[in-house]
Amino acid sequence: MPKLKVLLTGAGGRVGRHLVGPFQEQYDLRTLDRRRVPGDPNAVLADLQDFPALKAAMKDIDVAVHLAATPDEAPFVENLVPNNVVGLYNVFQAALEAKVRRIVFASTCQTVLGQPWDHTISIADPVRPCSMYGATKVFGEALGRFYHERHKMQFVGIRIGAFQAYDSPHLLKSSGTRALWLSPRDAVSLFRRAIEKENVGYALVFGTSITEWELLSRKEAKELLDYEPQDDVVKLCGPVRKGKNGRTQ
Fold this sequence. Notes:
Elements: E1 5-9, H1 16-26, E2 28-33, E3 44-45, H2 51-57, E4 63-66, H3 76-97, E5 102-108, H4 132-151, E6 154-160, E7 162-163, H5 170-173, H6 175-180, E8 181-182, H7 184-196, E9 202-207, H8 219-225, H9 233-237
Parallel strand pairs: 1-2, 1-4, 2-3, 4-5, 5-6, 6-9, 7-8
């Protein structure tokens, strides 16, 4: 069977660069970023405000994986609005006009981390962003719902946890990171499931590995995408160490 044609935006970013190699093996991949992605002859250099370039990049694409954004906190009007609001709309509209059938959207756990951390947070819990960045990702999830309901576009939103490499010092020192960790290998697996899983209308899931405790529910990712994480932060790093004051060392 012919390979799926996949567009990966933000391919040179923190998560994207871990996806490029595996995606090149699995799919007919085209990448898009503001800077050239090494080793990709199909790379498109474009900004999210360049609607004609986005639409051209979407030509003949089956699934668009949208990672490009201003990451974390930044000035709202100057940075977050152009990339995470206007640019996000441009991606959805360009995909619609190019007849892309599915968007996989990199959302964030920051959409809900304003919730108390005394229970496992589920997708059914109300959004409670802990940052303006998180609030822009709530907009992306809502936009995905609108394009699905109005235009029948398939949408998978992945609320990414704390993406960290295996040698990250945060995994040894930060209990918060350990409760939210998403490993590179599990990120590849999860995004592949989001691309390939059939009969997905609108789906929203959390993206983590096996964490120290299940702060973010893995139930929806398993049920909707058949996602099973392989990496376990405790097996990798051991249990978190506490000082005499009870704080993480």
